[in-house]
Amino acid sequence: MTVNLDEFVEVKLPDPQAFLKVKETLTRIGVASKKDKTLYQSCHILHKQGHYYLVHFKEMFMLDGKPTDFSEEDRGRRNTIANLLAEWGLVTLVDKSKSEEPLKKRFSDTE
C-alpha cells in the first residue's frame, strides 16, 4: 500500500513552541479502555519534508509499509481531533476540506 502525503491533514503551527504543545495535547486525546483504564493516543503530529501533518497512528503504520485496517471511523476520529486543535488555536488547517468529515458521535445504552 503506497502512501501519499497529500492524503494527510496538513497543519501550520503559529509559533516554534507550538509543536511541543500539540504533541503534548495529542497524548491526552484518544480512545479510553474501560477494562484497563488506559487512554490510547489516536493521533500524532508528523514533521516531514518541512511540513507538519496530523496523522492517525494507523496511518503511521502505512508510512512504514506495514499492513493496517485504517477505517472511515479512524479517518473521522483524526478529522475531529484536527478540527478541535484548530478550534483551540493550536494549529491552522492548510486545507479544511481534508477534515470536513468528523467522527459521528455514537451513544449506546451501555455507556
CATH C-level label: Alpha Beta
Looking at the structure, what is the overall shape? globular
Query: First CA to last CA: what distance?
Result: 36 Å
Mean pLDDT: 87
- What is the number of domains? 1
Output the strand order for the largest sheet: 4-5-1-6
Largest β sheet strand count, sense and barrel closure: 4 strands, antiparallel
Per DSSP, what share of the residues sits in E-state strands of 2 or more residues? 15-25%
Number of strands: 6
Tally of DSSP helical segments: 3
Going by CATH, the architecture would be 2-Layer Sandwich
- The CATH superfamily is Translation repressor RegA
- The sequence of SSEs as H and E is EHEEEEHHE
Low-pLDDT residue spans: 107-111
**Radius of gyration from the alpha-carbon trace, in angstroms:** 14 Å
Q: Structural class, judged by helices and strands? A: alpha+beta
Helix content: 25-40%
